Structures are given as C-alpha cells and as structure tokens.
Amino acid sequence: MLKKKKKENKKEVYALGQHISMSADKARRVIDQIRGRSYEETLMILELMPYRACYPIFKLVYSAAANASYNTSSTEANLVISKAEVNKGTAIKKFKPKARGRSYPIKKPTCHITIVMKDLSLDNKYVEIDSLKKPRWKNKHTAIAYPDMYSSGGIWDKK
C-alpha cells in the first residue's frame, strides 16, 4: 500500500548571507531588534538605525521578501520575520609587518546571517497580526503616584 503525500504550501522562505565581514556580536545587536516584526516595520527600523550591520541585514531581508514573492507568490504585507539568527564564521587571518622585522597577526571576524520569513496569509491560525513582539508594558499610562510621598507624618519628619 502506497500512500500519496499531500503537497503542502511552503509557508517559510529564507535568505542566507555567508562570510559577511563583521563580528557576530555586532550583527546580533541589530538582529535582536527585528526578530518577530513585520516586513515593512523591519525595513523602517533598519533604515533608521545608525549601525554598520544594518546594510547587509537590510539586503538579506529584502532578498528573503523577493524569494517569498517569487516562490510562494505572497504579498509583502503578510510577511513576518519568524526566525533570524547570526552564527560565527571563519576569521580571516593576515600578518601586519611591524618594526625590527617582526609581524603581528590580524584576525578579521566574519559571520553567517540567516533570515527566515513566514507568510501569515497561508497560516490558518493567524488572521491579522501587527507584530509578534510582546509589548513591554500592558498599559503605558499606569503610573502610581502617592500624594505627599516623602512626608508620612511620622516622628522622623520633624526638623
């Protein structure tokens, strides 16, 4: 008995950047800001951030969106970054000549960046979502203010 496998719609697409000449920690600082956000929100964040790591990440996000529109024919409004990771790559090693015939090694770190995008319109669980990130505060306007909080009227308030 042979069972036919159902063809599943591919919900996730990815873009991979290898041997990007930058430290993995510096790229991780930017990746942590965009993980779980929508495509348009991610592009705005990357354009306005002042870090050098933003440009190669911007190109990868743009490439992942192009892959999604070509392979799964999904619109950019439904795309969300489901997974983004940065791994260490190989270190480029050079030698710099110094005084008195000596040489010192120079190690230039590289990293591998993977951006995985998910199309929410293909997933039946999510109907409409702004961002997968949880807000830090449930209500921004809940500030507790005590009237006359420095003087409780006790013994120690006398001068």
UniProtKB/TrEMBL annotation:
Biological process per Gene Ontology, one example term: translation
Origin: domain of life: Eukaryota
GO annotations of cellular component type: chloroplast; large ribosomal subunit
Principal location class: plastid
Protein's UniProt keywords contain Kinase: no
Keywords from the UniProt entry: Chloroplast, Plastid, Ribonucleoprotein, Ribosomal protein, RNA-binding, rRNA-binding
Alphabetized GO MF terms: rRNA binding; structural constituent of ribosome
Any Pfam family the entry gives: Ribosomal_L22
CDD domains: Ribosomal_L22
Compartments where located: Plastid, Chloroplast
Function: This protein binds specifically to 23S rRNA.
Family stated for the protein in its record: Belongs to the universal ribosomal protein uL22 family.
Database matches in PANTHER family: CHLOROPLAST 50S RIBOSOMAL PROTEIN L22-RELATED, LARGE RIBOSOMAL SUBUNIT PROTEIN UL22M
HAMAP family with a match to the protein in the record: Ribosomal_uL22_B
Complex formation: Part of the 50S ribosomal subunit.
NCBIfam families in alphabetical order: rplV_bact (TIGR01044)
UniProt-recorded name of the protein: Large ribosomal subunit protein uL22c
Organism: Streptoechites chinensis
